[in-house]
Design a protein that fits this description.
It holds the Pfam family OmpA. InterPro entries: Bact_OuterMem_StrucFunc, Gly-zipper, OMP_bac, OmpA-like, OmpA-like_sf. It is found in: Cell outer membrane. This protein has about 230 residues and is an alpha+beta fold. The protein has helices at about 1-20, 35-50, 55-60, 65-85, 120-135, 155-175, 200-205, 215-225; strands at about 90-95, 100-105, 140-145, 180-185, 205-215. Helix 1 crosses helix 2 and helix 2 runs antiparallel to helix 3. It is globular and about 55 Å long.
């Protein structure tokens, strides 16, 4: 029964994600619980690409639930709206108590060819995000690098790690505290689209941000909700 319930919830949340007209897909912060959190994570993993998705796992793993979770969710709603306004070409997905931000060539976040160096346009766009991130200091940011399937798998893995680290380095150099930041590379293992077309490869060459509450935000939300 538990597994059947989770499947139904996952399908329900997936329908919300996939049928929304906006790239910003807000979950109802007052209706979050453990079951919904798992379902939302499953739907997010399917949407972003690849099972065992690192981004979806981070969001589900950081879930708090209860009244504190609802408070955190509302703060994340606000931050997600600001990100979407700041970077209209980005894909912003709200899931449980966190945010998944997907930056690909549509958001004009690119790297120099066969390099981990950010283009000047990418630096300008990421600079806009820094302003938003600084307004929400009690969040942690995981940067995940992805590539298309061109080249050797081992090479792509290393390249994705270097590109994610390059983004973290840029954020640090522009005032984001190092303690908030971490990075990982997934290589070509989690495509969002087919690698058989140029358009598909462009979607797969991307950087994702998983934004979750840090300990200070969680403790403040629990205090506000009377759960400490």
């Amino acid at each position: 029964m538990k597994n059947k319930t989770l499947v139904v919830l996952a399908l329900f949340v997936a329908g919300i994600f996939l049928n929304s007209c906006s790239s910003l897909q807000n979950a109802n912060s007052s209706q979050k619980g453990a079951g919904i959190g798992v379902a939302a994570g499953a739907a997010l993993g399917a949407l972003i690409g690849g099972k065992d998705n690192r981004a979806a796992g981070a969001l589900v793993g950081a879930a708090v639930g209860g009244g504190a979770g609802a408070i955190i969710g509302k703060q994340m709603d606000k931050q997600a709206e600001e990100i979407e306004t700041t970077m209209p070409g980005a894909e912003v997905v709200r899931s449980e108590e966190g945010i998944q931000l997907i930056l690909d060539e549509n958001a004009d976040v690119r790297f120099e060819f066969d390099s981990s160096a950010l283009t000047s346009a990418s630096q300008t766009n990421l600079g806009k995000l820094v302003e938003v991130f600084n307004r929400y200091p009690d969040t942690d940011i995981l940067v995940i690098g992805h590539t298309d399937s061109d080249g050797a798998e081992s090479y792509n893995q290393t390249l994705s790690e270097k590109r994610a680290a390059s983004v973290v380095g840029f954020l640090k150099s522009n005032g984001i505290q190092a303690a908030r930041l971490s990075s990982v590379g997934m290589g070509e293992s989690q495509p969002r689209a087919t690698n058989d077309t140029k358009a598909g490869k462009a979607q797969n060459r991307r950087v994702e941000f998983t934004i979750t509450a840090n300990e200070d935000m969680v403790n403040a939300a629990k205090a506000q909700a009377g759960e400490q």
